[in-house]
Design a protein that fits this description.
With 444 residues, this protein is α+β, with helices and mostly antiparallel strands. It has 13 helices and 15 strands. The protein has 3 domains: 85 residues, 3-Layer(aba) Sandwich (Rossmann fold); 84 residues; 225 residues, ATP-grasp fold, B domain (D-amino Acid Aminotransferase, Chain A, domain 1, 2-Layer Sandwich).
C-alpha cells in the first residue's frame, strides 16, 4: 500500500515525512516558487498531468493520493482519485470551493447571513474599470492563492491601477489560472470564467480559521486557529492556537460550514474555512473555503492538541477514519506560526547566518523555520501582488501564551528579525477558552 503526495513542499514536506513509515509515499508535481522547477508552468495541463500519473499507478503500487497545494494539487488529487476509484474529495466540490465567485453564490443561497455583498468585476485586466461602482471594495481574483492580488481599493483610480500588469505578469497570471479554467469549463460551467477579478463588500472583525474534515458525509471539526494581522493591513502577522473564540461561536461557524459543504457536495476530505467575527455587530462572515488542509497549522495542532493533520490526510486518502487514529500527549499549551514580513519596499532584509540558525536550534530544538529569500525583482513583484514581502516563518510552542511571546522575542533576536508583535512591550494574559472538540470526542 503506497500513497502519492502531489506538490509536496514547505510544511507538507516536513509533515508527511513524519508518517513515511506507516504510510509510504511517492511525490509528484513541481515547485511554483523555485527555478528551474517552475518552468513547468509554461506547459502545465491538469488533464495530462493526471492521466500520466494514472498510467503509472499500477506499476508504482499507488492506492491513494492527497495534496494540500491550493493552486493545482488539491484539484489534481481529486481528479486522480476519481479516475482511479480511490477515496477523495469530489472534483465538483473542489471546483466550487476554489472558484471564489461561485462559492459566494452558493453561500448566498444556503447561508446568506454569513455572506457579504459581491459581484464580478466586468473588466479585463488593464481595460477601463466600469463607472458607478461602490467604494471601498475588496478586490480579489476569482481563482488565486496566497492572497495574491487581494486588497481593498478606495476609489476607481486605485482599482484601475490594481488591474494593470506588464506582459510578463499577464503571462504568469494566465498560466496560473488556465489549468483550473479548463476543468471548470468542462465540469462546472455554470460558475463562469475564473479569468477575472471580483469585488466584495469589505468585512470587519477578527479573522479565524475553522479546520475540519468530512468522513462518510459527516462534517467533523478539528479546531479553530486565530489569525492576527499587521496593523492596518490584511497581511498575516501570526496564527495562534488555542483560539480566543468562544465555543458557542466556534459551533456557529461549524454550522455555516456544514450548510455550505453539503450544498457543494463535499463528502470526503479535509477543509479549512476562513471567516471574520465582528463582536460589535455579532456577525460571522465567511472569507473563503479551502478544500484541503491548511498545512501551516498542522504543527500547531500536533503540539497543542496531540493530533497530526498530515496523518489525517493520509488516512482519509486511504478511506480510513481519522477519529480512530491515536491522540498523542500534547507537548505545549500554546503554539503559533510567526510570519516575518516587510511592509517597506525599500527595506533590505538579511537572511540569518548559519551561526544564527544553529543558535536557534540549540535554544529551541522543536522550532520550525522557513526562509523565503528573494531577489529585487521577486520582492518588487511581491509588493505589487501582495502589498508586502514575506521573508520568513517560525513555528514555536510553549507552556502558555505568555511564555510563547517571550520565546518569540528571544528567537527573533537570534535571527536578527523584528518580532511579529505590534507592541513588544505588551504582556498578554494567557487565554483559557475551551477548544471545539472533534465530533467523535464531544461526549468525552
Amino acid at each position: 500500500m503506497s500513497s502519492l503526495v502531489l506538490f509536496n513542499y514547505d510544511w507538507d514536506a516536513q509533515g508527511f515525512a513524519r508518517h513515511a513509515r506507516a504510510f509510504p509515499f511517492d511525490t509528484a508535481g513541481f515547485d511554483l516558487f523555485s527555478f528551474p522547477s517552475n518552468v513547468q508552468l509554461a506547459r502545465f495541463d491538469l488533464h495530462r498531468f493526471v492521466e500520466r500519473l494514472a498510467k503509472q499507478a499500477a506499476a508504482k503500487g499507488w492506492t491513494a493520493v492527497t495534496s494540500n497545494h491550493e493552486q493545482f494539487g488539491a484539484l489534481a488529487a481529486a481528479m486522480l482519485a476519481e479516475r482511479m476509484g480511490w477515496p477523495g474529495t469530489p472534483v465538483k466540490a473542489v471546483l466550487a470551493c476554489q472558484h471564489k465567485l461561485y462559492a459566494r453564490e452558493v453561500l448566498a443561497r444556503v447561508c446568506p447571513q454569513a455572506n457579504c455583498g459581491f459581484d464580478r468585476l466586468e473588466a479585463a485586466y488593464g481595460q477601463p474599470v466600469p463607472q458607478g461602482l461602490t467604494y471601498p471594495a475588496f478586490a480579489k481574483p476569482v481563482k488565486a492563492a496566497f492572497s495574491v492580488l487581494a486588497r481593498t481599493v478606495h476609489n476607481r483610480d486605485e482599482l484601475q491601477a490594481h488591474t494593470r500588469f506588464s506582459a510578463w505578469e499577464l503571462w504568469v497570471i494566465r498560466h496560473l489560472v488556465e489549468p483550473f479554467e479548463r476543468v471548470v469549463r468542462e465540469r462546472l460551467p455554470q460558475a463562469g470564467s475564473a479569468h477575472s477579478l471580483m469585488l466584495e463588500e469589505p468585512m470587519q472583525g477578527q479573522q479565524y480559521n475553522l479546520d475540519g474534515y468530512v468522513f462518510n458525509r459527516e462534517v467533523r471539526p478539528i479546531g479553530v486557529v486565530d489569525a492576527v494581522h499587521y496593523p492596518g493591513t490584511n497581511a498575516f502577522m501570526r496564527f495562534e492556537l488555542p483560539s480566543r473564540l468562544a465555543p458557542a461561536l466556534q459551533a456557529r461557524a461549524l454550522e455555516v460550514a456544514r450548510r455550505f459543504l453539503k450544498a457543494v457536495g463535499f463528502t470526503h476530505g479535509l477543509f479549512n474555512m476562513e471567516f471574520f467575527y465582528d463582536a460589535a455587530s455579532d456577525s460571522l462572515k465567511v472569507i473563503e473555503f479551502n478544500p484541503r488542509m491548511a498545512s501551516q497549522f498542522s504543527d500547531l495542532y500536533l503540539q497543542v492538541q496531540g493530533i497530526d493533520l498530515h496523518e489525517f490526510a493520509l488516512a482519509l486518502a486511504h478511506g480510513q477514519d481519522p477519529a480512530l487514529l491515536p491522540v498523542r500527549q500534547p507537548s505545549a499549551g500554546a503554539a503559533a506560526s510567526f510570519v516575518y514580513r516587510s511592509l517597506n519596499e525599500g527595506e533590505v532584509v538579511s537572511m540569518p547566518s548559519p551561526e544564527r540558525k544553529q543558535a536557534l536550534v540549540q535554544a529551541f530544538p522543536k522550532a520550525m523555520l522557513l526562509e523565503f529569500g528573494k531577489n529585487n525583482g521577486q520582492r518588487a513583484r511581491d509588493f505589487k501582488w501582495l502589498g508586502s514581502y514575506r521573508y520568513g516563518i517560525l513555528h514555536l510552542a510553549a507552556a502558555n501564551e505568555w511564555q510563547l511571546r517571550q520565546d518569540c522575542l528571544r528567537a527573533s533576536d537570534m535571527l536578527g528579525w523584528p518580532a511579529p508583535y505590534a507592541d513588544a512591550r505588551h504582556q498578554p494574559v494567557p487565554r483559557t477558552h475551551e477548544r471545539l472538540a472533534p465530533a467523535s470526542r464531544l461526549s468525552t
